Amino acid sequence: MKKFVNDPKQFVPEMLKGIALANPETIKYVPEYNLIMRADAPNNDKVSLVQGSGSGHEPAHVMVVGPGMLDAACPGDVFSAPPADYVYETAKLVASDKGVLLLVNNYTGDRMAFEMAQEMAEADDVLVDTLFIDDDVAVQDSTWTVGRRGVAGNFFVMKACGALAEEGASLPEVKAIGEKVNSVTRTMGVALTACTPPAKGAPLFDLGEDEMEIGVGIHGEPGRRRAKLVSADEIVDEMLGAIVPDLPFASGDRVALMVNGLGGTPISELYLVYGIAAEKLQAQGIEIARSYVGEYCTSLEMAGASITLVKLDDEIERLLLAPAEVVNRIF
Amino acid sequence: MKKFVNDPKQFVPEMLKGIALANPETIKYVPEYNLIMRADAPNNDKVSLVQGSGSGHEPAHVMVVGPGMLDAACPGDVFSAPPADYVYETAKLVASDKGVLLLVNNYTGDRMAFEMAQEMAEADDVLVDTLFIDDDVAVQDSTWTVGRRGVAGNFFVMKACGALAEEGASLPEVKAIGEKVNSVTRTMGVALTACTPPAKGAPLFDLGEDEMEIGVGIHGEPGRRRAKLVSADEIVDEMLGAIVPDLPFASGDRVALMVNGLGGTPISELYLVYGIAAEKLQAQGIEIARSYVGEYCTSLEMAGASITLVKLDDEIERLLLAPAEVVNRIF
C-alpha cells in the first residue's frame, strides 16, 4: 500500500483535522461526531445543507463545506456510511429555523443511516427533509444499491441547492430545485485501475493490465462490463453513448459538461477527455454553456474518469453561476 | 499503460485543445506554437508573464493562465523543454509596452531554450527579461540541473509577479518581487510511485513495493536517497527536517504552507499530510498565515507529495491575497 498514512484507523480523523487546520477561521471539525461544519453555522436565515457518505470520495463532501455549498458534511469511514446517530447529531448542530436538508447519494447503507437520522431529528422537532441523488446511468441496481447510484452529478445538486438556500428559499423550495437538477443530470464513469482503502491495505478488486471497468461505481463496484482498454476517443464514445440517449439530451439543448477524475488520473488526461467529449457533443448540436474539469467525486487513488451532463434552463444556470466558497480553494 | 490517450504524440496538443474548449471566452490555443494564452493579451498597461516547461506538470503551467497569473504558457512535450523558437514566438505574441518576463524553473534544458528565446526576442526589440526559480532543497545539482531545481514553489513566484504586474509595476519591479519570493521559498518532495510518459508507455523508473524516493525531482529524477516507506508522520519529519533549517525558518516567522500532490495521490492524503506538517510547524513557533493544499506542480500520475514553505512579509502576503483567475477553476 503506497499511501501517506499513519494508523489506517485514524485516516479519516487525521484528514479532517488537516482540513480544519488549513481553514481555521471558516471551518470547524467536531471529533465527537467526525463532522466538518461551517464555523458560522447555523444561520437562521437559510436552510442548512448536510451531505454525508463514506469517505474516500474527496473533495466530496468534507471539502465542499462553505458559503453557497454545504453547511456540514458527516463522513463515514472509507467507503462506509456514517453512523445514523452521527448524522442525527450533525443535523441538530446545524438545525436552523428554516430547516435542514439532508443530501444523500443513493447507496443503500447511506439511505438507511440518513432515513433513521431524519426520524430521530424529527422526534426532536427539527424541521428536516432528505433528498436522494441518483445520476449514474451505468446500471439500474448494483452491489450496494437498489435503483441508480449517486455519483459526481451530486456536485450540481449541492451547488443549486446551496445557491437557492443562500437566497433564503424555504426547505420545500430548496428540495424541489435539488430534485429538478437531479432529474436532468446524468453520469457515467470508467475505471482504469482499482483503489486501495487504507484499512484493507490491498486493492478492492483486480483489473488486468489491459482492462478497464465501464460504468464503475465510486467504490469500485462493477458497472456494465469489463473490457479491453481502448483509445480515449472510443472510451468517450461509449460513455456519451450511454449518457446522451438516457435523458435524452438533444440538439439545441444547453448543458453543463463535467469531466471528473476518480483520484489517480492527472488533470492533463481529464482535459484531453473534456476536449474529445466537447467536440462530440457540439457535433450533435448540443451547446456547452458551463464546463467543469477536475476532481469532484473520487474513489481514493483510482485511475479513471466520469462524464456528467446537466440539461440547463435559466434557473439552473443562474444557480450554478452564483458565488460559492469551499475548503478546497486554489488560491 | 493505463491512460486516457489517443495517439501519444498528440497527447499535449489534445490536452491544450481541451483547455481552450473549456474556456472559449478567456483562453486561446495557438497550435502553430503549441501555446496557451489569455484571449485578451497583450495588455499594454502591464508586464506580460510567460512560463514554460515540459508538459506533465499540470496544472503548471498551461492551466494557470489568466488574470493575476500568467499571460501565456508555452509547454514542451511531456518532460521536454519547449523549443526556443516557440518560446520566442510566445514572447512576441504577448509582448506589451511594459515588457515580458519569462519565468523558468531551473532545469538545464529549459534554461537553454529560454535564454536563446530571450536573445531572439531582444534582437526584435522586445523588452524582455528572464527569472529562474530554484526552490527545491533536495539536491544541489541533479540529473538535468546545475544548481537547485525549480518545483512547486514556482506557484508563489507566479502569483506574486502576476499580482504586481496587474498593478502596473515595471519589468524590473516585477522581476525583483519574483526574485524575492524565490529567495524565501523552499520545497521538498517524496515519490511513492513512478510515472509513465504517454510516449514511453512504461514507468520512468523502478520503485519497489515498499520503497519511496526522498527528494524526488518532478520528472522522477533521483533525490537524496531511496528508503523504505514509513508512516506519514516520519515522512513529514524528514521533509520538514530538510526544509526548515535550509532558509532557515524560525520561531516567530509567518509562512505560507503548501502541500502539493504529484498527480496520483488523492486529496484526502494531502490534507492528512497538511495537518501533520501544520502541527509540527506550530510546535516550532512558526505561524501559518496562508494554506495551500492540492495539485500545483505534478509529475503525471506519480503518487507523492511535496511540501513548500514561503517566509512571508507584508508585501508578499498582500500579493498572495490579490485576486486571480485561472483555467483550472472549481466552480
From TrEMBL, chains A, B:
What domain of life? Bacteria
Q: What region holds the DhaK domain?
A: 7-330
Q: Which NCBIfam families match?
A: dhaK1
The UniProt entry's GO CC annotations, sorted and at most eight, read:
cytosol
In the record, what terms sit under GO molecular function? ATP binding; glycerone kinase activity; phosphoenolpyruvate-glycerone phosphotransferase activity
A single GO BP term for this record reads:
glycerol catabolic process
Q: What is its EC number?
A: 2.7.1.121
Protein name, as recorded? Dihydroxyacetone kinase subunit DhaK
Keyword terms, alphabetized? ATP-binding, Kinase, Nucleotide-binding, Transferase
